[in-house]
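// run 5 | inverse folding | seed 20
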């Protein structure tokens, strides 16, 4: 029986910043082995599981599900007096870094902490600001000569944060953006095992979203889908965050020029039949998601976006509700099962 939380844990506790997603591919290669008919890896490194239609059309049709598997991360920029200087690869909030436990991926993984200057020694001005990147140092406890043997400039640095069980079906951890949505794809594939569907399903765990939406572009070119649904995280309500989206309120659905309005309407209709609540997510410009690259790939791909409400985004304690993951997977599976030989005609613009 599929254990969603165990699978999610295996994803978020693995380490794979943008451009270095190999460990996540390994997790998915095993997790999807019995769920898909075949797998492919495109030239940029996105991992794609292919589930063939149970009642194929002629010509065949393809839907692409895309969720990025890269996480925000850092790399070693220098070695100074037994400490490591670091720079972010993408997305890391420097305000959160002092005293964080990290893993330095040197010749072997090394546990360390981001050093913190004691408050007693800070000037009055320094107490009023956050350290900037060139002031952050990682200490792994090794003497300088030994450190230089084990670590090189360019080695990766990631936050060490296990998945934490919270109350009320909620979990927190690093890299929920966007591996919680990769878990949605896995759950969708499990749902589809018990359903008939006429379209081929391509589930793409894309790379390098955090530094440019690159994997989505190459995956769309590789798959050449007829339709696409991107999966990402959205802002959930918490103090000082301006949003109406609630945890356990159902998936958010993107509204705006990045999204095909007829495809959005069809997703809404499916959700209504299943009594799954959707939360509107108005995005009048760049969505900042894989949908942005997919929409204009090839000759243009009708694209929609479903987002998982998330608190504390881009932190080591990103918080999601497992029920939202389950509902989104159920919605996707039933939507896919409803695709037929008339779908593209119905979605076509006049």
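// decoded
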């Amino acid at each position: 029986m599929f254990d969603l939380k165990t699978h999610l844990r295996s994803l978020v506790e693995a380490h794979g910043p943008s451009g270095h997603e190999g460990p996540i591919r390994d997790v998915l290669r095993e997790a999807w082995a019995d769920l898909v008919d075949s797998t492919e890896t495109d030239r940029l490194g996105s991992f794609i599981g292919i589930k063939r239609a149970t009642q194929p059309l002629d010509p065949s049709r393809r839907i692409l599900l895309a969720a990025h598997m890269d996480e925000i991360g850092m790399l070693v920029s220098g070695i100074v007096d037994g400490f490591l200087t670091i720079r972010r690869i993408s997305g890391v909030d420097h305000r959160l870094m002092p005293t964080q436990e990290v893993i330095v991926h040197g010749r072997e993984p090394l546990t360390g902490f981001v050093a913190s200057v004691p408050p007693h020694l800070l000037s009055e001005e320094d107490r009023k600001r956050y350290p900037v990147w060139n002031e952050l140092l990682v200490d792994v406890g090794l003497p300088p000569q030994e450190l230089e043997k084990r670590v090189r400039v360019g080695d990766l640095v990631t936050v060490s944060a296990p998945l934490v069980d919270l109350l009320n079906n909620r979990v927190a951890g690093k890299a929920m953006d966007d591996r919680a949505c990769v878990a949605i794809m896995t759950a969708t594939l499990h749902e589809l095992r018990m359903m008939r569907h006429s379209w081929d399903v391509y589930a793409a765990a894309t790379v390098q979203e955090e530094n440019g939406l690159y994997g989505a572009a190459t995956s769309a070119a590789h798959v050449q889908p007829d339709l696409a649904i991107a999966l990402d995280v959205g802002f959930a309500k918490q103090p000082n965050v301006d949003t109406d989206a609630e945890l356990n309120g159902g998936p958010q659905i993107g509204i705006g020029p990045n999204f095909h309005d007829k495809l959005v309407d069809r997703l809404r209709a499916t959700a209504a039949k299943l009594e799954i609540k959707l939360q509107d997510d108005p995005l009048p410009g760049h969505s900042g998601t894989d949908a942005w690259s997919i929409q204009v790939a090839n000759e243009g791909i009708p694209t929609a976006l479903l987002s998982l409400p998330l608190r504390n985004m881009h932190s080591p304690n990103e918080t999601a509700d497992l029920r939202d993951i389950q509902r989104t997977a159920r919605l996707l599976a039933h939507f896919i099962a409803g695709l037929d030989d008339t779908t593209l005609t119905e979605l076509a613009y006049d």
